[in-house]
Design a protein that fits this description.
Distance between the termini: 31 Å
Number of helices: 6
Order of helices and strands: HHHEEEEEHEHEEH
Strand order of the largest sheet: 3-4-1-2-5-6-7-8
Radius of gyration: 18 Å
Structural class: alpha/beta
């Protein structure tokens, strides 16, 4: 079959399909962030708003689905859970996303259509842990220190951050012990959301490197 010429390195079905996942995620989260109603609730101290914890949990779920898809056909997968130490006595802090070799020690709520899907994974099978945050304003320095006992590589993935804070947050994250930092888009109450497509491409590349290294 003759090779088809393309105009740039961004052409191709594979790239488009991977970008499609990002566009879906970023658009869904942005619509909730940009909503006038939601923004009014955020300014008030009244009840009735969705907690950042829940938004972060939704982000980690989306990221798990996307990562599983990227790892399809390998001996690796992604899950929410805890890492267990070598003796199986102690567990790590909660891991929003664990990229690990297939297999787990225990799965909680392992039904056909689970409400939750939480895995206990041996630290020896863990490759990367990803901490997910809703709106990133500061860097949690304690988390990588606690996690380094269980896994050597820790990434940070945010839904959004301020329009001018991406580079400074990345430097602070690196200093704190996070190997990588990404976000879906930048946003502030006074600006429109701007998608971080380059960041997503870099995330996909890093997961690809994991596939090639194992």
């Amino acid at each position: 079959m003759a090779k088809i010429k393309t105009n740039s390195s961004t052409d191709g079905h594979k790239i488009l399909l991977q970008s499609e996942r990002f566009e879906q995620m970023a658009s869904e989260f942005r619509s909730w962030r940009m909503s006038t109603f939601i923004r009014q609730l955020e300014k008030s101290r009244k009840k009735g708003k969705i907690l950042p914890f829940v938004r972060g949990l939704r982000l980690s779920a989306h990221l798990i689905y996307a990562t599983r898809e990227l790892l399809e056909g390998t001996n690796m997968t992604a899950n929410w859970g805890h890492l267990l130490d070598n003796d199986g006595n102690f567990c790590s802090p909660e891991c929003d996303v664990i990229i690990h070799k297939n297999g787990h020690i225990r799965q909680w709520n392992d039904t056909g259509k689970p409400v939750m899907d939480f895995r206990f994974v041996s630290m020896n099978n863990a490759l990367v842990v990803i901490s997910c945050k809703s709106r990133v304003r500061s860097i949690d320095e304690e988390y990588p220190r606690e996690m380094n006992v269980y896994v050597g590589r820790i990434w940070l993935f945010g839904e959004c951050c301020g329009p001018r804070s991406g580079k400074s947050l990345a430097k602070k994250a690196e200093k704190a012990g996070y190997e990588k930092f990404w976000y879906l888009y930048t946003w502030s109450p006074k600006t429109e959301a701007t998608f971080n497509r380059g960041g997503w491409s870099n995330f996909v590349d890093e997961v690809q490197k994991l596939k090639d290294s194992v």
